[in-house]
From TrEMBL:
Classification lineage: Eukaryota, Viridiplantae, Streptophyta, Embryophyta, Tracheophyta
Membrane topology field: Lipid-anchor
Name of the molecule in the record: non-specific serine/threonine protein kinase
Keywords: ATP-binding, Brassinosteroid signaling pathway, Cell membrane, Kinase, Lipoprotein, Membrane, Myristate, Nucleotide-binding, Serine/threonine-protein kinase, Transferase
Gene Ontology MF term list: ATP binding; protein serine/threonine kinase activity
Keyword hit for Lyase: no
Organism: Heracleum sosnowskyi
Catalytic activity as recorded in UniProt: L-seryl-[protein] + ATP = O-phospho-L-seryl-[protein] + ADP + H(+); L-threonyl-[protein] + ATP = O-phospho-L-threonyl-[protein] + ADP + H(+)
Amino acid sequence: MGCFSSKTAHLPSPDNPSKPESVNGDDSGVEEVEVNQVQVFKEYELNELRKATNGFSSDCIVSESGERAPNVVYRAKLENNQFVAVKRFSRQSWPDPQQFLAEAAGVGKLRHKRLVNLIGACAEGEERLLVAEYMPNDTLSKHLFHWDKQPLPWEMRVRVAYHIALALDHCNMEDRKIYHDLNAYRVLFDEDGEPCLSSFGLMKNSRDGKSYSTNLAYTPPEFLRTGRVIPESVIYSYGTVLLDLLSGKHIPPSHALDLIRGKNVLLLMDSSMEGQYANDDATKFVELASKCLQAEARDRPDSKFLLSAVSPLQKQKEVASHVLMGLTKTAPVVPTIFSPLGKACVRMDLTAVHDILLKTGYKDEEGAENELSFQEWTQQVQDMLNTKKFGDIAFRDKDFKSAIEYYSKLVVMMPAPSATIFARRALSYLMNDQAELALRDAMQAQVCIQEWPTAFYLQALALSKLGMETDAQDMLNDGAAFDSKKQNSWRN
């Protein structure tokens, strides 16, 4: 499915907390905490996912399958700045939208730290889409067959085998015993370098479950006979992944079994791992692969056996995965605490921003010298007040075009600028898809009140609309910093 699926959002948010770092190997006592942190499965609107993938742009594609199971995986960014993977099925795969959503919702109930969890789906018109978490560190296939800096070390390969077994065992316990087309592309690495099994494989490639997209040489024998996948087929596919881990290349199971029977195990092993493993451990690993690849389904082990066989082979549980893989792990970012306005801007929720600006009114300008403090009731002042009144009414009633018109007249009439007027006109411009003008007004509001969080948040909104995400993030952080400063000054 490619390497994009999601563990964290790049903008920290209380709705999407990052998961705690875990100690490799020992998975007890962590699962319940992490399960609670995965967002609830939801049904997405097509327009939301179309926007997130830039109109399903080819530039966002991270993987494509062949003709047997035509589907595409896109890297996508939701409006709350969360990165996800979106899998788009062929139009013929799931004719019944309710059947598709029901199947996806069933998979979406599964939650495990060794799964790339499914967080949503969409079925509108002829579109059938799945949404999963984001995984930033590529696939097992990339690290095994197309590595750039270093080959995957033996200990990490054992850990991958164990983590896949953990995920499959959890699926079995949750009565999800069929995993479609298990291969090295289905295993992905999260921000900590931890291997996780894609949830996409828990969904059929088509409504009848007959699709099987790998090379026939790697396909379970019973599938070739009946065209059906059974739970034991998953174990066979697990065996092919073990061969990948052992050899560092694609070896057809029949050829690998010939080598094993001829006791030519060394010819099977990846030469880049020389000196990294004990011969007894390698032999046990090979024997497990052989058991999984038995021609008769009834002769293959179950997931509990996989766990018991692989667990003793782990010898460096205390070493973090990103260290074993040579990945640079960035230090965790302290979550930024946003005010309600800041949170609304992070979500790009213009309606909520409008509600907050309405409730706030002009109180942030109290005490400042501006056009709202008058000593004389001249006709000019009366015209100014009426223009402001009509602008505020239009803003309240969400007649943003009229609000822009009245506030523009008011800006010309005012003897001194008003930050609130600029802020309201900025939001009105945003509501009319005029991000550049909105940015200009938000900057003018900052000139009026230099440390006003609202001005920074509105600039962030405009910058994000213009596709300037780095600058938008900086503005959000500045707004949050000034928010915090103001709160602290009130406490003192």
